[in-house]
Amino acid sequence: MTQIQKSNSELVTQHYLGKTTENRTMYYLQISQPSDKIKKIIWMDCGIHAREWISPAFCQWFVKEILQNYKSDPKIRRFLQNLDLYILPVLNIDGYIYSWEKDRLWRKNRSPHMNGTCYGTDLNRNFNSSWGSIGVSYNCSSEIFCGSGPESEPETRAVAQFIKNKSSDILCYLTIHSYGQYILTPYGSTTKPPSNNEELVGQHIHLLQAVTCGTSLFTLLPFLQRKMAAAALMGKYGTSYKVGATSLILYSNSGSSRDWAHTIGIPFSYTFELRDKGTHGFVLPPDQIQHTCEETMLAVTAIIDYVDRKYFPGGAVMLTASSLGLSLCLSVILTWNVS
């Protein structure tokens, strides 16, 4: 991170976020194009679960791609005029290092419990969103131990306090995980859709009509769910992703960062579960790193571009008919809660 800042000082700054259980410093990177106007924020974190190594790899890839291509890519250049990117490459630093040095499949952080007889809290069950209500354990030996209370862990507190302070400026919260090949929307703790679901769907009806030449939304929706759910991802290598509310297409859980971010008012909040579907699981082979990052980059930038065009509609970049269709269909599905 220090090297990235030094070699890209015109765009990148490194900032202190907090300390981990084992007293390591958490930093995030801010990618910001100099401007006189106040800009909105896209937040991305990776590595909340220690064993999900492809996640920090993607955060690194994302930063690299933005910095290498912002001068030549009109879409990136445009959204950097309106949006700052905040990237936390490894949220769970202690657990991540432990997974490299001691236990490849370690998931949690490294906080001690019961006088050191067990270790670790699942940081993605520790946020203050229906904390402890479903899909968690109160047994500190469990992989889904939710901690002693909401934000009981220093890593969770550092992220939550920072995001709460910036919440009025954050338009999109992205958290990157593996595995399963999902793009998950709120909520995990209830099947009730988000409060802004009708507004989000309503915003997209005219877009659907434009893409489908007037085809009925309800006629088209099953096709979109099957064929276009993650169009940008599929467009690269044909990798299929399932998209929808966590509680409906994966499992129920509470205390997740994605749900919490939405409950404090961040309009767009997604969890990416990257490759694969279980053949290799958390131990994804190194030869899949680049392909995974390339296809995920397309999906993430499609989301950011959509957010940018929604909140800053003036001066939109010109898109080809095919790329517009893919982008809009992806946007429609990402904001539609499966019922």
TrEMBL record:
Keywords: Carboxypeptidase, Hydrolase, Membrane, Metal-binding, Metalloprotease, Protease, Signal, Transmembrane, Transmembrane helix, Zinc. Residues 1-307 form the Peptidase M14 domain. The keyword Cell membrane does not apply. GO terms for molecular function: metallocarboxypeptidase activity; zinc ion binding. One of its GO terms (biological process) is proteolysis. Its cofactor is Zn(2+). The chain crosses the membrane at residues 316-336. SUPFAM superfamilies: Zn-dependent exopeptidases. Signal peptide: none annotated. GO terms for cellular component: extracellular space. InterPro entries: CARBOXYPEPT_ZN_1, Peptidase_M14. The keyword Hydrolase applies. Belongs to the peptidase M14 family. This is Carboxypeptidase O.
